[in-house]
Amino acid sequence: MNYFLIGDEDTVLGFELAGVSGLAVESAADAEKAFSTALEDRNNGIIIITEDAADLIREKVDKYLFSAAFPLIVEIPGSRGIKKDRKDLRTLVNEAIGIKI
User: Fold this and answer.
1) In CATH, what number is assigned to the domain containing residue 42?
2) Side-chain-facing half-sphere of 6: CA atoms under 13 Å
3) Which domain does 45 fall in, by range?
4) Which one of 45, 55, 59, 73 has the fewest CB atoms closer than 10 angstroms to its CB?
């Protein structure tokens, strides 16, 4: 099982240094093509996508998130950091499992 990253150039470069392949995107067309490429490869078990890249194709990402079980899609902050209107990971986990960690 492989990881695949879709995001800005700095984030993709950082993950590539850790051995994770990916594609840098700057537009909705780039993001859509990268997302399709990631889904086509059955070896990709986890697709990591930055919030900014996901926002470019939000409808597609959400549709896939709520209709498919594999691969797992994980949104992360990009090189600009966490968006102010998004909850941090600890809060999301606390809400999901119902206990405070």
Assistant:
1) 3.40.50.10580
2) 30
3) 2-97
4) 59
Q: What is the pLDDT of residues 48-59, one digit of tens each?
A: 999 999 999 999
Judge contact between 47 and 74, C-beta under 8 A: yes
User: How much is the pLDDT for 11?
Assistant: 92
The rounded distance, in Å, linking the Cα atoms of 7 and 26 is 8
pLDDT band at residue 78 under the 50/70/90 scheme:
confident
Query: Strands 2-7, 72-76: parallel, antiparallel or unpaired by DSSP?
Result: unpaired
Query: What are the beta bridge partners of residue 50?
Result: 76
Domain count, the chain: 1
Residue 63's pLDDT is what?
A: 83
Going by C-alpha positions, the residue among 97, 35, 47, 41 that lies closest to residue 71 is 47
Indicate if the alpha-carbon torsion angle 17, 32, 78, 89 is positive or negative. negative
